Amino acid sequence: MIPQLVTVRSRGRDGRRRRFFIPVLPVLLVLSPLLLLAVLAGLVACVVFRINPGGALRGVGQVLLALPGSQFEIEEGRTAFLVSVR
Question: Which keywords does UniProt give here (predicted)?
Fold first, then answer.
């Protein structure tokens, strides 16, 4: 199952907390032309570095399948940043 919603929470230096909800499907549709360029660049990189494109694609697929339920948290000083993938 692909992720449906990404929640980004941040706390700035001033202590204010912000929360953003980013739906994955509309963002993917808007950025699809750039996705095509990224796939082509990835194929060129596979040829240049002599990497099997099928293996690279399989690895990217496994990372994407592992994303739902993941949380990434970065905290430095008074600034905090949390990304939650559902």
Answer: Membrane, Transmembrane, Transmembrane helix
Q: ∠ CA(58), CA(62), CA(41), 5° rounding?
A: 50
pLDDT tens per residue across span 17-29? 899 999 988 998 9
- State how far the Cα of 35 lies from the Cα of 30, in Å rounded to an integer: 10
Task: Judge contact between 21 and 27, C-beta under 8 A.
Answer: no
Q: Which pTM value belongs to this model?
A: 0.61
Q: Residue 68 pLDDT > 70, yes or no?
A: yes
How far apart CA 44 and CA 85 sit, in angstroms, is 30
